[in-house]
């Protein structure tokens, strides 16, 4: 099955100065909810901008020196002059991203404690797109967009990401085998997975494994698996022209009708109705 991506994004150049070296705030290219065919991309280190990207599906993120297999909703901030690696050679992937540069932006990013050039998992799945869309509103709704507002939005994004990292660090008290199984589910949720498989990986009985998993993560492993699949299905339903059968198989359900029942039970509406009601995230390139 081949998925053809829909182009969604926008470009904005603040042309107050002709010399890019004088630019304080320069927003270059953007994309919200971009769907890509299976491939791992490498961007060379000659780029002079910052690239901020969220992978909404499992894939790879990192640099040529360190390529990481990451779960869905992993964020990375690449600095200038760094090779950038992202994508998924095992299947289609979805990501959102933006490029920016300028002296004020460089100062802002370098002063932030948020790690650079390393992927971070974000539990707030709507966080990144929320800021891209707010930036889009600022740069397209005004003849002269405000650098101050753009910088404030970027600063707020960095603060919220830093909070997400702090929350993630609190998970360190959870037993390592439970965390490993959580990461395994996030990276493989669209593959056949049973409770027997998970309990064996944890070296625990099924009942003991379920009890410990729920004790620390406040949800059973199978419920978490279903949540991951439904969240992925919601992303696919927003802007890919796939049949329900294709979406069902892509998220890990061979039976289209079983998938529809699970989806409706979780969301209160059928997948088809969800698709019809979903906001269009496509932003035309200008």
Order of helices and strands: EEEEEEEEEHEHHHHHHHHH
CATH fold-level assignment of the largest domain? Jelly Rolls
Rg over C-alpha atoms, rounded to the nearest angstrom: 20 Å
The helix fraction, in percent, is: 40-55%
Give a nutshell description of this structure.
44% of the residues lie in helices and 19% in strands. The protein has 286 residues and is α+β, with helices and mostly antiparallel strands. The strands form 2 sheets. The chain has a 6-stranded antiparallel β-sheet.
Task: Please tell me about this protein's structure.
The protein is α+β, with helices and mostly antiparallel strands and 286 residues long. It has two domains: 160 residues, Regulatory protein AraC (Jelly Rolls, Sandwich), CATH 2.60.120; 104 residues, Arc Repressor Mutant, subunit A (Orthogonal Bundle), CATH 1.10.10. It has ten helices and ten strands. A hairpin with a 2-residue loop joins strand 5 and strand 6. Helix 7 runs antiparallel to helix 8. The chain is globular, with a radius of gyration of 20 Å. The protein starts with 9 loop residues before the first strand and ends in a 9-residue tail after the last helix.
């Amino acid at each position: 099955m081949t998925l053809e991506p829909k182009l969604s994004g926008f470009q904005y150049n603040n042309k107050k100065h002709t010399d890019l070296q004088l630019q304080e705030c320069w927003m270059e290219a953007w994309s919200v909810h971009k769907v890509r065919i299976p491939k791992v991309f490498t961007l060379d280190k000659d780029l002079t901008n910052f690239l901020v990207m969220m992978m909404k599906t499992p894939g790879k993120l990192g640099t040529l020196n360190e390529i990481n297999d990451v779960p869905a909703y992993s964020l990375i901030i690449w600095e200038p002059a760094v090779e950038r690696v992202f994508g998924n050679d095992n299947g289609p992937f979805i990501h959102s991203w933006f490029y920016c540069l300028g002296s004020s932006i460089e100062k802002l990013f370098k002063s932030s404690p948020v790690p650079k050039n390393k992927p971070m998992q974000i539990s707030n799945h709507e966080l990144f797109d929320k800021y891209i869309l707010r930036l889009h509103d600022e740069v397209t709704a005004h003849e002269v967009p405000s650098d101050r507002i753009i910088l404030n939005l970027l600063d707020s994004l960095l603060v919220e990401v830093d909070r997400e990292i702090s929350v993630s660090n609190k998970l360190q008290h959870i037993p390592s085998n439970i965390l490993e199984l959580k990461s395994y589910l996030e990276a493989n949720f669209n593959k056949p997975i049973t409770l027997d498989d998970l309990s064996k990986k944890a070296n625990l009985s099924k009942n003991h494994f379920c009890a410990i998993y729920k004790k620390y993560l406040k949800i059973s492993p199978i419920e978490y698996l279903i949540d991951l699949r439904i969240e992925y299905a919601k992303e696919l339903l927003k802007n890919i022209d796939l049949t329900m059968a294709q979406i069902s198989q892509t998220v890990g359900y061979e039976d289209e009708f079983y998938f529809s029942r699970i989806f409706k039970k979780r969301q209160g509406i059928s997948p088809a109705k969800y698709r019809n009601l979903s906001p269009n995230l496509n932003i035309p390139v200008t």
